[in-house]
Structure formats: C-alpha cells, structure tokens
Amino acid sequence: MDCLFCKIVKGEIPTLKVYENSSVLSFLDVNPCSLGHTIIIPKKHYQNIEDIPEEELNELFSTITKLVKVIPGVVGTTDCNIGLNNGKLAGQEVPHVHFHIIPRFEGDKGSSIQGLVRMEVDKQKLPELAEKIKNEIENNPDGKKTTETKKETTENKPQEEKDSDSSNKEKEEQPTKSPEREWQEFDMELQNTPPDYSEARKENY
C-alpha cells in the first residue's frame, strides 16, 4: 500500500520519533503549527477513526493521554489542542488516521476548534436533529457507519453557493505540495542533498 505513514512505520521515510510501542507510533510533525506539534498514528493502516477496532483505539487514546501530560511542559506551556481530521472534507491530507497534539502559547494567533468552521445553522431544528442522531445510535448498536448522505445538486443551490463551489474548485485545482513531498524535503535536508521530486506522489483517495 502506497501510504506515507505506513512507510514511516516501516522505516522507509525518516522521522523524529518521540514515543513508540507495539501498536502506536508518535513523531514530531515535519511542518509544525507550533513548537512540539506531534502526530500520533496506529501502526496498522486505517483510513478513518471509525475503522479502528475498540481495543486498538483504547491503546491509541492511552498514548495520546500519556503524551499530553508531557509535551506541553517540555515546550514551556500548559495548554494544547488535540485534533483529528477525519476525512478529506475535514482536511485529512494523508489517508491514514492520525491525531495531532498542538501546544498552544500566549499570542500564537491560533483559534479554538470551534473556530475551524462557521456554518449557519437553524437552531430551531436542533431538537429534531438531536432526536434523529439518538434514534440512529439506538437502531445501530454495533456502531456500523451509516451510508446515508445528503445529496444536493448544483441546480438546487442558491447562486451564491454555486459561485462559492466554483471558487473552491479553482482553489483545489491549484498545485499544492503533497505531504510526501514535504517529508522528502525533510529527508534531503538530513542528507544535505537537493530534493528529487521525480518520485513525489499525489494523494488520491
């Protein structure tokens, strides 16, 4: 499987490990948001958190808790964000589930998790939504992922949303540096040689 993080687990790509056990690996982010920004991954390949068996998920969260007790203090702070980008629309760049520990500092210009998305929501419909989610959980005791998705065609969208979609599509078409390219540059810096992008891979998932 051509997965960036699986290659890191196998030792094919260098990384700065901070903790490792039989099922979990954690390392410093090569492109950190803040000092001490750490990535935590299961060694087995799972694309999303809902794919991970409960026992392995418990081990993953145990490791996160262990690191949260240490990392902020090492970099001189007390607070941090713990985050997961679960799926492409949520910003997941590498299709291998991974958590972030991002230490926070006074004046770091960051925001809370609530600041990630500012979507207009009809609060009057929240009781109905809560009931729908509750019923879905009760009717799905095994926790199987629901396949129901909202399908909204372009024709049904207001003009301003169509314009926004067009703008977003143009942004997506702009060339971006893939995560593997960033790791390749990091590897080349360690070797003090210029990077070779001929093997760079585009994420397709």
Written description of the protein model:
This protein has 205 residues and is of the alpha+beta class. The protein has a domain of 115 residues: HIT-like (HIT family, subunit A). It is 33% helix and 13% strand. The chain is built from 6 helices and 5 strands. A 5-stranded antiparallel sheet has the order 1-2-3-5-4, covered by helices on one side. It is globular and about 50 Å long. The protein starts with a helix and ends in a 14-residue tail after the last helix. The C terminus is likely disordered.
Keywords:
single chain, 205 residues, HIT family, subunit A, five-stranded antiparallel beta sheet, 6 helices, 13% strand
Quick recap:
By secondary structure, the chain is an alpha+beta fold. The protein has a domain at 4-118: 2-Layer Sandwich (HIT family, subunit A). It is built from six helices and five strands; from the N terminus they run H-E-E-E-H-H-E-E-H-H-H.
Whole-number average pLDDT? 82
- CATH superfamily of the domain at 4-118, called what? HIT-like
The CATH architecture assignment of the domain at 4-118 turns out to be 2-Layer Sandwich
- Number of strand segments: 5
Lateral strand order in the biggest sheet? 1-2-3-5-4
- Continuous helix count: 6
Task: Give the radius of gyration.
Answer: 20 Å
Poorly predicted spans: 151-156, 190-205
Report strand %: 5-15%
CATH top-level class of the domain at 4-118: Alpha Beta
Structural class: alpha+beta
Describe the largest sheet.
5 strands, antiparallel
